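User: histidine kinase. Structure?
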Amino acid sequence: MTLRSRLLLAQVPLVLALLFLGATAVITLARVGRSGQQVLEDNYRSVLATQRITEQLERMDSAALFIIAGERERGMTQQASQRPPLELELGIQQGNITEPGEAEATQRLRTAWTKYREEFDVFLQARGPEAARTRYFEALSPAFQEAKAAAASVLALNQDAMVRKNDRLRQQSEQVNTLMVLAVVAALGFGLFFTTSLVQRALRPVSVLSQAVRRLGQGDVEARAVVEGRDEIAGLARDFNTMAERLAQYRKSSLGELLQAQAVSQAAIDSLPDPVLVLGAEGGLLNVNAAAEDVLRLRLDEGGDALGRVEPEVRAVLERVRAHVVGGRGAYQPRGYEEAVRVESSPEGVRWLLPRGSPVHGETGEVVGATLILQDVTRLRRFDELKNDLVATVAHEFRTPLTSLRMAIHLVAEGVVGQVTEKQADLLFAAREDCERLQGIVDDLLDLSRIQSGQLQLDVREVRTEELVEQALAAQRTLAEDRGVRLSQSLSPDVETVRVDPDRLHLVLGNLVGNGVKHTPHDGEVSVHVSREGTLVRFEVEDTGEGIPAQEQARIFEKFYRAPGAPAGGAGLGLSIARDIVQAHGGELGVVSTPGQGSTFWFTLPQPEQG
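Assistant: Predicted structure:
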């Protein structure tokens, strides 16, 4: 018997259970339906007839009152129109006797109606309103009440019968519900028991084959699936055994050696503690190591868009690095810890990964993919945060005694506490300059602390560009004159104002202009240019100094970094703070420099076009 036949046979008990359940439902629902139909046939028509008889009697009584009130013609017309339908409804009631005592009640209604009709005929023969009124109250009205009471008796009898039958119908419905629940439970239990048993017997060979496949996947090429029979599963087991036999032969051949080498290389990648991914040129996932599977929850065997299941922030970083490498721009190296991406990794908790990328070349030398390494810099980042906290604390502690020291030196140098000699004045002047330098370093450290703690608040408002540039140049004019450096500016007419935090941007421009003056020789020039590029405003600070070597240009924006040969007096924070302030405005800061030909520091700020 084939597997298809076995599976179809396993459904037979369930089908029989459904047929039994359906037959039970049809029979019980038919019984309930017949009971409801009986209520309609037996009593509803009688109720409707007696209600109409009562209405017609009341209209005839209204006609009698019209006659008494002097509207004889209207009363005559109305009473005459009510007699035929009343006779019709009474006949219907007499033909629909279904309840005990209903025949006697109907006969009383017939007798009362006959009497009322005869009294009405006598009432119509009365002469004059007084005679009609007297006849109405003495004979016609009592006959009307009697007929109406007889109709109410028939109505009440049928209504009571309907209530009783409705109670019986409800009891039948409850019995039907109980019967249906028992039938469903019995049918479901019968069907599931026998269907499960037959399916387990039919699929037991599948379990044997699955165990053999699992063993083969774990590297046991001696695994075999022992399945007897002639169905599809047995044929599949024979094919599996043949495949396992040939695989064992391949392992002994050169192909086996190649596979073993691949396994060794994969083991080497898996031994790396940092996540490693290999992406194709189109972004497809080609390979991952064990660390990437654990941290990023990536699986090659999941198929589809594997990266689509990674956290959006991590996926954006991976795509950016891949685009850089595949775009032919060489290996990707991060600029600093700020490029580290945050990943929620259990049970380790939050981890910070710094991306790096290198190209994968094809046989002809073209870039066919990218290898991405996410270096775990969690501990280094924490050390960096501790260092920043320490620096901020020290800067805060330095500020108060440094202010007192500056004031004391100033008072002594000015002779407030006594006359000083020329040599003492020189020493005090040097000390005051060192205090000012220390004050600048402390201010830089505090600014850096506020930026890194997220406390940098921008007071953005519209400022005249010329005023902003002039203030930055004026702050450095004394130093420029001392060094013999010219200061100049060039402003585009379409950038009259900019929306910035003037105090923060003054710090950026002052730092760039001051650096330019310090690195420009005598008779050199530092110029500031402002122009518009679409929705961006570009500021450039150009000097004619010694320039910056290419290997130093990527590092000068790092915190506490000082280029070799840089003048003494700073802490290496100015450019780092300037970059953070520009980025807080939504812009970018960079440098273009050639050794021996000067440098141009530039930054852009997003600004709406002026109308």
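The CA atoms of residues 45 and 245 lie 86 Å apart. The chain has a mean pLDDT of 79.
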